[in-house]
Amino acid sequence: MAPMGIRLSPLGVAVFCLLGVGVIYHLYAGVLSSRLAAFRQKRTVDLRELLALSLEAAVQGGREVKRIREEDTLEQRSKGKTKEGANEMLTLGDLNSHRKMYYLIKNTYPYLQVNSEEHDNSDGEATIWMRNIPSEILNKIPAGKLVPADSVTVWIDPLDATQEYTENLRQYVTTMVCVAVDGDPVIGVIHKPFTGYTAWGMVGEGGNIKPRDSYNSNNPKVIVSRSHSGRVKSFVQQAFGNNTDIIPAGGAGYKVLALLDASDEEYEKADMYIHVTFIKKWDICAGNAILKALGGHMTTLKGEEIDYSGSEKNPGGVLASVNIDHKAVVNRLPAWEESKN
Questions:
Q1: Mean model confidence pLDDT for the chain
Q2: Which of 8, 94, 150, 285 has the fewest CB atoms within 10 Å, i.e. is most exposed?
Q3: Mapped to the 3 state alphabet, what secondary structure does 320-334 carry?
Q4: Which amino acid positions bind Mg(2+), per UniProt (predicted)?
Q5: Residue 108: how many CB atoms within 10 A of its CB?
């Protein structure tokens, strides 16, 4: 007898095929899923390119800041009160600068986390970065450096020193961009819209600005916030004496530059920067990165490193210095508690 064969009806063939597809799916779905996850994890960004993009963003935002001020179309209003009870101002310069800076970065790297001081409900800018890296960056940083994109947080301040901006105190105004990797500030850009001066630094690579030749930590010149100068004055005098030279100034970016050798700019030179009231991370991240790139320090008043991931708040105050014994200065500071400031 001839061997009996198994004959399947068309319905049976269809069922068999579906079962086969199901088996293949279950076999490979896990593999595909893990490969997709690995692909996402392997998405990287070049820090040298991010530096060039940050510089371009700060300059483009600065153009808007300058234009609005010169046209006197500020449209200023209050966003509300700060923690200390002062009016927090918002102008068209802040908003236009935010749009330029934020969307330039997001259009280039849509998967990056970008935190800005301002927010708006517009459809966004169509600005696209042409990926041109300035020669000053190429000469200083000959090779790129890739980092995981999900480790990066970008902090932008579209207009630092808004109060001074409304008072037409242009010397204090800056636009700033900072790139943090795993919470550590590694790229900082501070741009002065009204002079065109831009300072930048990248940790491990240096920058286009340098420390001054000497600093005095025993009888220092201390730069502080002009809007809270009375409160910080007593704090500084407790640490360094009643005859300490205290320099009130606007803008965290300006204060950091006052610690450095911005030879093309007119600055009141300071030996350290102290801030004792509440401050946001977009105010200080760029300055922190630049100081760190130059071997300097920016910490809380207790000497703790500031983490630039997660919350926008920095409740611990600020001590910034370069080329002095930072820990020794921390030890000279009086006891400080957030609840009292």
A1: 86
A2: 8
A3: EECCCCHHHHHHHCC
A4: 117, 157, 159-160, 283
A5: 19
Residue 157 among known ligand-binding residues: yes
Residue 117 marked ligand-binding: yes
Q: Name every residue whose Cβ is closer than 8 Å to that of residue 49 and which is 6 or more positions away in sequence.
A: 131, 133, 144
Show contacts of 214-217: CB within 8 Å, 24+ apart.
Answer: 214/323, 215/271, 215/272, 215/321, 215/322, 215/323, 215/324, 216/271, 217/271, 217/272, 217/321, 217/324, 217/325, 217/328, 217/329
d(C-alpha 40, C-alpha 78), whole Å: 41
Nearest to 104 by CA among 193, 194, 197, 177: 177
Among residues 282, 208, 263, 140, the alpha carbon closest in space to that of 200 is found at: 208
**159 is an annotated ligand-binding site residue:** yes
Classify domain 221-340 at the CATH topology level: D-Maltodextrin-Binding Protein; domain 2 (3.40.190)
The domain 45-207: what is its CATH number?
Answer: 3.30.540.10
Q: Is 283 annotated as a binding residue?
A: yes
Contacts of 140 (CB under 8 A, 6+ apart): 205, 206, 207, 208
Query: Which of 310, 294, 226 is closest to 259 using CA atoms?
Result: 294
Over residues 318-329, mean pLDDT: 97
